[in-house]
Amino acid sequence: MQYEAKTPTEYINALEADWRREKIERLRTLIKSKAADIIEGINYKMLSYGDEKGVLFHLNAQKNYVSLYVGDAKKVDPDGSLLKGIDVGKGCIRFKQSVVIADTRIDEFVERAIDMWKRGEDIDC
Fold this sequence. Notes:
Elements: H1 8-14, H2 19-34, E1 39-43, E2 46-51, E3 54-61, E4 65-69, H3 73-76, E5 87-88, E6 92-96, H4 106-118
Antiparallel strand pairs: 1-2, 2-3, 3-4, 4-6, 5-6
């Protein structure tokens, strides 16, 4: 889904007060906690996280899941151990309603992606 928001606050306010908003809030808090210097903004009508070099993550609420876009997830988690139990595409990690974020290792994945990105490693698709 696309939201006509110009700021992260507008984006959050445009979401319905349901499970997707809860997951978005948990994921954005997680991302910001792993990199205090990361800048939250809007890019391609989604929440975005990055710095002056560019965007590392996009976060978006879809109809049936919440998407975390991170380039190529396999470059960050080659053996799939950090994303076990989560629906993963090449560049999209999908959190469906049944996924309990606290029961996953997404925090470790996000931290690893941030570390790799800051070192200048290629994690793009």
